[in-house]
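Bit of a strange request maybe. I'm writing a small parser for structure token strings and I need a real example to test against, not something I typed by hand. Could someone generate the tokens for this chain?
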Amino acid sequence: MVGKEIEEGERLLPRFEKSALLPCVTVDADSGEVLMVAYMNQEALEKTLETGKATYFSRTRGMWVKGETSGHFQRVVELRVDCDQDCFLLRVRVDGACCHMGYRSCFYRRWKPGTKDVLEYVIAEKSFDPAKVYGKGS
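Reply from user aminoacidic:
Good idea to test on real output. This should exercise your parser:
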């Protein structure tokens, strides 16, 4: 059972005990556009709060600061936590793009209505060339 301190308390008490990783939805602080979804462990959360730069964790990369390689940092304007304290919402201002493919948002395609599996681009232009930023094969 989730206690009152978690659901209505005034302390940040993320529930890492159920999972070492908690999902984090990242949105543009001004427009509300969803930029990406990633995960945080306790250390990534602590670094985010300490530095003001969005820091995430993945099983393949470990802990990483968004923008450390590309220079497209996410500067945290606000961190919210959901009612169960097992999911985060970051409102950020971005120094460029968020997607490693060069698009502003990782959500640059959508399902085309009336088809079974066709995707169409909703963001046509890339903000940067990933081959130049990350090197070939990235």
